[in-house]
Design goal:
With 110 residues, this protein is of the alpha+beta class. The chain has one domain: Glutaredoxin (3-Layer(aba) Sandwich). The model has no long low-confidence stretch (mean pLDDT 93).
Length: 110
């Protein structure tokens, strides 16, 4: 129908982050991996979130379909590092305890 090979379509779909091959969760969690956030511990938050959401290697959406976890290069709030954004809500100076409370609130909305 497009006049291009399936491998070409797949290559484009997997190259750009805007395209997805699996369903996205109801809420998108973005963890900033910019320099300030990285130094302030964003990798530890990312690891904690993967465990909290029950994500296996290679997965980015929680099994319950509520959350999709995404690493981003910068959220533009370096003075609040580490920064995590859920949908349009920004959490600065993020910690596992603060994230747990926020995730529980989102889970309660369903």
């Amino acid at each position: 129908m497009l006049g291009v090979s399936l491998s070409r379509v797949y290559g484009v779909a997997t190259f750009y982050h805007q395209f997805r091959l699996r369903p996205e969760g109801l809420h998108r969690i973005c963890v900033c991996k910019g320099t300030a956030c990285h130094i302030a511990g964003s990798q530890e938050l990312l690891d904690w979130l993967r465990g909290e959401l029950g994500l296996r290697p290679g997965e980015d959406s929680s099994p319950d379909g509520l959350f999709t976890l995404q690493e981003v290069r910068c959220l533009g709030a370096c003075s609040l590092a580490p920064v995590v954004k859920i949908d349009d809500e920004v959490l600065g100076k993020a910690s596992p305890a603060a994230l747990k409370a926020l995730l529980d609130r989102y889970r309660g909305e369903v």
